[in-house]
Amino acid sequence: MADKKFGQKRVCSNCETKFYDLNKNSPLTCPHCTSEIVIENELSNYSTSQVVEEQKKDHKDEFDGIEDSDNSNDDDVISLDEAVVEEEDKN
């Protein structure tokens, strides 16, 4: 296993060369083809649990603000089984 001082193992998206990032932040430079590699999901300042908690806070209920109006008559609602029987009776 590699020493942690070398950082995380990366793969260049251009030439597919494997290299260690030496604990440097994005953007990285490929040592073989010198192309710039941007790591989008790099979260150096946050732990995983902090990110998950922030995502939960930002989550909104899609039905928030919709009033629950149960003005329908329960006699109008039938089960699926009853609907099948009615459909068969019509045919």
Helix content, binned percent = 10-25%
What share of residues are in beta strands?
A: 5-15%
Amino- and carboxy-terminal Cα gap: 72 Å
The ordered string of helix (H) and strand (E) elements is: EEEEHH
Q: Measured on Cα atoms, how large is the radius of gyration?
A: 28 Å
Low-confidence stretches: none
The counted number of beta strands is: 4
User: Tally the helices: what do you get?
Assistant: 2
What kind of sheet is the major sheet?
A: 2 strands, antiparallel
Averaging pLDDT over every residue, what do you get?
75
**Which structural class matches the secondary elements?**
alpha+beta
Form type: elongated
Strand order of the largest sheet: 1-2
Can you describe what's shown?
The chain is an alpha+beta fold. It has a domain at 1-42. It contains two helices and four strands. It has helices at residues 48-58, 80-90; strands spanning 9-11, 18-20, 28-29, 36-37. The protein has a two-stranded antiparallel ribbon. The protein has a two-stranded antiparallel sheet with strand order 3-4.
SSE layout and pairings?
Layout: E1 9-11, E2 18-20, E3 28-29, E4 36-37, H1 48-58, H2 80-90
Antiparallel strand pairs: 1-2, 3-4
Short description:
The chain is α+β, with helices and mostly antiparallel strands. It is 24% helix and 11% strand. The protein has a domain at 1-42.
Features:
single chain; 91 residues; alpha+beta; two-stranded antiparallel ribbon; two-stranded antiparallel sheet
